[in-house]
Amino acid sequence: MPLALLALAVVAFGIGTTEFATMGLLPQIADGIDVSVPHAGNLVSAYALGVVVGAPVLTGIGARIPYKRLLLLLSGLFVVGNIASALAPNFGLLFAARFLAGLPHGALFGVGAVVASRLVTPDRAARAVSKMFLGLTVANIIGVPASTALGQHLGWRSAYWAVAVIGGVALAALALFVPHQPRGGQTGIRHELRAMGNRQVVIGLATAVVGFGGFFAVYSYLVPMLTNVTGISDSSTTLVLALYGVGMTLGTLIAGPLTDRALRPTLYAGLALLAVALVTFYFAVHATVPALITIVAIGALGSLITTPVQMLLMTKADQAPTMAAASNHSAFNLANAGGAWLGGLSISAGWGWTSPTLVGAALALAGLALAFAGGLMDRGGRSDVVASSDAEPSPRSDQVTMTKP
């Protein structure tokens, strides 16, 4: 792995850790700032809101800034947001700090994905992007459990201090190892926004919101499912979530090569198999071993979707890919909120703890239908989103578009 990709993976590791660590420390945070646990749960929403707002806004503001400098500025904002979280004396300021910490999330991933894709030849672009995403999945195995344990033993503020240190390390690594990449001749927020008007970009974002919503419909309620239906103890759920992270890592590892070879088929297969795995989990959750095996599969298939959607958006907005790549992470956070809401509705309706799995399967199939609609729009013309290992390299070294004769 080139050191530049490793630096980008460290950034993703820090983002993944801070995004999910709050969920594991809600009781400690609630006690520390004297609010109820449900009220403290709004801090998770504050971060997600920051991601949704920050991805397009910060990407637009930085549309003329060279990629490396923009990465450094966004990483600095990430560090500031987490330091502010560690120092916040009350709920109001902590809410604002979590919003601030979420602002650079989508833009960092968007700019980082574009930079990663241009560090390699076009036929290996998806593999480079998936290596950056590895940092996010590894965070679910190591970063989130470690920060949760740290916060439980040394106080919740220590977890945010630790993430700020990770951000500082990432900032130094970006400064040392990421090469300068010029923006090109035509840049600016209006140029980026015009690219966002592409119908394929809109369908790609809708696919991410709806299809990945199926993943979050189950992930959001995984712990109560396991404790109330499977019978796994509360003390074991952290290890099970780490197992989920292992599945996500495996999915990310295979997503890169598959996406480089055939983008749309990888996306179709990922969504279809995710729906199958979620229906399987509806039955498997009643027994420990089948449930754990299915959890790994769901984690892998959820991550298998991420890279092809990211590359699809970057390819369809190839003259201004940064806004589209960043907005993908706004879409994932909307999927998080929407999937959790729909899964919660099914439980509240009295359909049982396992009902979110069927809701998730329906969302995955709806995402598959949207993906097929986008694929049909490519028929009858040149397809620029299906690459193969023997595709001719692009005549421009800074272009991520890949064509199939």
Automatic annotation (TrEMBL):
The keyword Cell membrane applies. CDD domains: MFS_NepI_like. Residues 396-405 have a biased composition (Polar residues). Signal peptide: none annotated. Its main location: membrane. Gene3D superfamilies: MFS general substrate transporter like domains (1.20.1250.20). Coiled coil: none annotated. The chain crosses the membrane at residues 42-63, 70-89, 95-120, 132-153, 159-180, 201-223, 235-255, 267-285, 291-313, 334-353, 359-377. This is MFS transporter. Keywords: Cell membrane, Membrane, Transmembrane, Transmembrane helix. Residues 2-379 form the Major facilitator superfamily (MFS) profile domain. It is found in: Cell membrane. Residues 383-405 are annotated as: Disordered. Pfam families: MFS_1 (PF07690). InterPro entries: MFS, MFS_dom, MFS_Efflux_Transporters, MFS_trans_sf. It is a multi-pass membrane protein.
